[in-house]
From TrEMBL:
Keywords: Hydrolase, Metal-binding, Zinc. Its cofactor is Zn(2+). GO terms for molecular function: cytidine deaminase activity. Its EC number is 3.5.4.5. PANTHER family: CYTIDINE DEAMINASE. It catalyses: cytidine + H2O + H(+) = uridine + NH4(+); 2'-deoxycytidine + H2O + H(+) = 2'-deoxyuridine + NH4(+). This is Cytidine deaminase. Coiled coil: none annotated.
């Protein structure tokens, strides 16, 4: 599965976004190192802040399935530039993604910006920053 295939998967799941409030639909597709695909769309709520973004839905589906070894992610939305993930999603990504994992950000016109995890959230708080029992 290449970059375009992953973007295509994100576009498809985007149509399932539950967005009665913002009407802004986002799709995400996440590939594991063993080749499994996890997709996500944003799911809104009448209590607006409870909303979960497409990126986190895809990551949480994978983790709930016992998968944490990720290879690549794609995110698609109808934006004027490749869609930038929100801060909460960047923090969740940094928990699971290697610093050099590629995230392909796309709009519907096909503009694509590929960024490494480290570029999305530099100097992030990670599990390694917590005290370690071995020390
Ligand atoms: O990268 C993003 C940015 C926004 N949203 C969602 C959250 C909300 O449902 C809507 C408007 O913010 O878009 C995502 O899913 N991913
Ligand atoms: Zn988000």
């Amino acid at each position: 599965m290449d970059k375009q295939d992953l973007i295509e998967e994100a576009k498809q799941i985007r149509s399932n976004a539950y967005t009665p409030y913002s009407k802004f639909k986002v799709g995400a597709a996440l590939l594991t190192k063993d080749g499994s695909l996890y997709t996500g769309c944003n799911i809104e709520n009448a209590a607006y802040p409870v909303t979960c973004c497409a990126e986190r839905v895809a990551i949480f589906k994978a983790v709930a399935d016992g998968q944490y070894d990720f290879q690549e992610m794609a995110v698609v939305a109808d934006t004027k530039r490749p869609v930038p993930p929100c801060g909460s999603c960047r923090q969740v990504m940094s928990e699971f993604f290697d610093v050099d994992l590629s995230v392909h950000l796309s709009d519907l016109s096909g503009q694509i910006k590929t960024v490494r995890m480290e570029e999305l959230l530099p100097f992030s708080f990670t599990p390694e920053d917590l005290p370690n029992d071995d020390e």
